[in-house]
Amino acid sequence: MLAFILRRVLQSVGVLLAVGLIAFAMFRFAGDPVNQLVAPDTPYAERLQIRQSLGLDDPVLVQFARYAGNALRGRFGNSYQFRQPVSTLLAERMPATLELALCATVFALVVGILMGVYSALHRDGALAKLLQAVSLVGVSLPTFLIGILLIFLFSVTLGWLPSYGRGDTVRLGWWTTGFLTASGLRALVLPSITLGLFQMTLIMRLVRAEMLEVLRTDYIRFARARGLTTRSIHFGHALKNTLVPVITVAGLQLGSIIAFSIITETVFQWPGMGLLFVQAVQNVDVPIMAAYLLLVALIFVSINLVVDLLYTVVDPRLRLSVRRAA
Amino acid sequence: MSLVKPRSLLKSLAAASAVAAALGAAPASAANTFRFAFQGDLKSLDPYTLKETFTIAAHGAVYESLVTRDKDLKLAPGLAESWETPEPTRYRFHLRKNVTFHDGTPFTADDVIFSAERVRAPGSNFQTNVPADATFVKVDANTVDMVLKNPNPIALYQFGGWYIMSKAWAEKNDATKPTPVSASTPSYAALHENGTGPFVITEHQPGVRTVFRKFPGYWGKVESNIDEAIFTTIQNDATRVAALLSGEVDWVDPVPLQDQSRVSGSPNAVVVNAPELRTIYLGMDQASAELKGSNVKGKNPFKDVRVREAFYRAIDEDAIVKRVMRGQAAAASLLIAPPLFPLAGEFKRPAYDPNRAKALLAEAGYPNGFEVPLDCPNDRYVNDEAICQAITSMLARAGIKVSLLAQPKAKYFAKILKPAYDTAFYLLGWTPSSMDSHNILYEITGCRNDLASPRGTTNLGNYCNPKVDALADRIERETDQEARNLMIKQAYDVVQADWGYIPLHQQALAWGVSKKVKLVPRADNQMMLFWVSKEP
């Protein structure tokens, strides 16, 4: 087992290195950072000096080795545009992204499961059909369009909710939270819905399909024969058995919610890591881009690692094969 | 067993939110708050780090310069109450008394001398704002002399962007050098300010929000009635406009052209348009022996003045202003915006004449036109890519086959600027940072034959006429304004007769402003907080 874990960890390190190298190779095509850092009429000599001091004239491999060496020691360099350490900037932005991801996931799970159960139980009802249609819209409309539509409806037309930002936040140690103020909570509503809509429809469709499957099984029929209440059959027995795949999917989706909150954050000017990344791309802020990509790779690699380990815990057959291979 | 009892957790949550509510409510009830949003960030608070319009304007709320610019961009006294020129190479500044920095230290001549050193130190992006050959001499605590090697008629023109910093404060916080790009540690001055201006910055989260409060110890009277100003970046066009329409912000820049009528039609806000100083123009490679990317081999058609005139005549600038810019631009006849040159009114833009263009091309030996690639940014100027598309189709009518390469500015500038100069035909925008024609006659129309000299650095196509260079050298030294203006006019006449460049237009600034707010749209697109007033 230990050998298995070790092997997976080593593989993860390999993946991270590969991501870093590919990212670095791609940054060459993002443009020239120096033009984004200085005024258009900056003398050429000054530009040259900046290029040199940033080490931009070195070969890509040398730049990558220098970056990887620093990263291993926990140094991610300074952002070109903000002239602050990247680690500080990311740490400042992380709470915003994580809180948004959490709210979006909770929204997706609660609403998705409720809608899924309902449309499975009343599969021919008018509302269930409507929900199916709505879910199709949720899957097919791009995120930015949903965000902008919500802004125009709830902020501009109705004036109920803020159109951008995080509202007032409260600082708890190094963490800033929007959960403790009214404006912070209000600001969370629209971005959470926007970010979670896709996952919600996914979960709804998954729950519905699983539920229909489960409702046809023998033990449900027996439970009915035993005279249990419909409520306990639906929620106590059927729903519980549909949740296993739902939890797996939701867990995996959490990673992508964090990583791909970029678009939602841009539309709502949500001060999270995704927005920082978009601004970095436009300004060719290589240190931020590199650190963000590594962070996202790390999140995915860790989630996959945990999932792999959980599988061996859950399924004894996998454990055996692992042991044999080792 | 959980360690925290649910009830006590609830209690502490309630307490925390009560505290938060109190914190949030206190300033809001008393203060007149002005909220403003720009598409870009306020990156560094160090006033010498980035020469960019919005950044300079934002710094201008907290920092002040010796000589400033008024609402019409005329020179006006700032921290220097008055100045005189006892001899052409000596400027004497009489500093304002009773001025203190935000940390309480008094402003003196030492701060001016320190700031003059710092602004010209390596790592500063404002090195050219103060003449390189100037030495600053302290006469007494409130008088400073600037001594120049040569007479310089525009020595003070860029002082508006040169903000005075406190010597004592910079020394105390190890910030005596400007924050360079490659600094290994963040500089104190990049995250904190200590100016003499009417506002202080109480909170600065780079890229997220910055809070300005009125400085109670300000030396002068302030026109503005706002107590607090909160700046946020809103990058997405639709979100920025939505925030303005819903009343969450009072000022946004820019309002995209397609949204302007909607904003003007709304009950909360209006669009303020005013001509800007940046001129958008086309440049042609007149240096290469063979035109890059063209089907004409062995020679360069742009070396022929008839071809350049044909291009000029084939472009219907009025149509671009009307259709592409939706009227929010002024057609340009010069490379400089009219407010910056008193004789600009004497120039007329040569008329659009497609038949003449065709005839000229035929005369030059290209009756069927030729192919040429056009470099264009797509995220730098208002509707830049659309302008290039319009030009492509206009030139097609004259037989010129343009292949358009529109890219993001990060890629675009790397391709066309020094040292690559990899372009045959390009669209660029330019604002002379000195607000004077010499900048244009040196940077854009100056010959770039001597690689070591900074002359003509941005003359990407190397338009070159020694007459212009000779005039530029005289213009640099001439202190008699009238004679100087005539020389400038002469130089522009030469460039025009050579059809050296194709000026297109000055785009209009487009601010979205709440109807509760009064402010000053200055032509350099700088929104100064101290001219903003808002109905509470």
Automatic annotation (TrEMBL), chain A:
Stored PROSITE patterns: ABC_TM1
Subcellular location: Cell membrane
Domain ABC transmembrane type-1: 94-311
Signal peptide coordinates: none
Ranges in a coiled coil: none
Keywords, ordered alphabetically: Cell membrane, Membrane, Transmembrane, Transmembrane helix, Transport
Domain of life: Bacteria
TM segment ranges: 12-30, 98-121, 133-160, 172-198, 243-268, 288-314
InterPro entries: BPD_transp_1_N, MetI-like, MetI-like_sf
Membrane topology reported for the UniProt record: Multi-pass membrane protein
Family named by the database record: Belongs to the binding-protein-dependent transport system permease family.
Annotated protein name in UniProt: Glutathione transport system permease protein GsiC
Annotated organism of origin: Methylobacterium crusticola
Gene from which the chain derives: gsiC_1
TrEMBL record, chain B:
Domain Solute-binding protein family residue range list: 74-449
The keyword Transport appears for this protein: yes
Principal location: periplasm
InterPro entries: Peptide/Ni-bd, SBP_5, SBP_5_dom, TAT_signal
Localisation: Periplasm
Source organism, top-level taxon: Bacteria
Keywords, in A-Z order: Signal, Transport
Signal sequence residues: 1-30
Family the UniProt entry places it in: Belongs to the bacterial solute-binding protein 5 family.
Protein name: Periplasmic dipeptide transport protein
Organism of this sequence: Methylobacterium crusticola
Gene: dppA_1
